[in-house]
Design brief:
- It is built from three helices and five strands, in the order βββααββα.
- By secondary structure, the chain is α+β, with helices and mostly antiparallel strands.
């Protein structure tokens, strides 16, 4: 088996993952900055079970796709 190119890693399926294809995790501050909310609001959403989050040691991380999925579009009514 040859080594993955450019320092990539091989996952459990044998696929090569490079830095660009590796999953990106956001810190609470990065997630708050991304959506224009406070860290305290994000912590409340996590506590309420509305936003999935993951703990790595003492650090809390959020997947960007979970953050985007939590945001809800406000329906509008069209006036004819």
């Amino acid at each position: 088996m040859k080594a993955p190119p450019f320092g990539g890693q091989t996952n459990e399926r044998g696929n090569t993952m490079t830095v660009a294809s590796a999953p990106r995790w956001l810190s609470l501050q990065e997630a708050a900055d991304h959506v224009g909310m406070s860290v305290k609001t994000l912590r409340r959403m996590i506590s309420a079970g509305n936003l999935p989050a993951y703990r790595l040691g003492k650090a809390v991380r959020i997947k960007p796709e979970d953050l985007e999925a939590t945001l809800q579009r406000i329906p509008t009514t069209s006036i004819l």
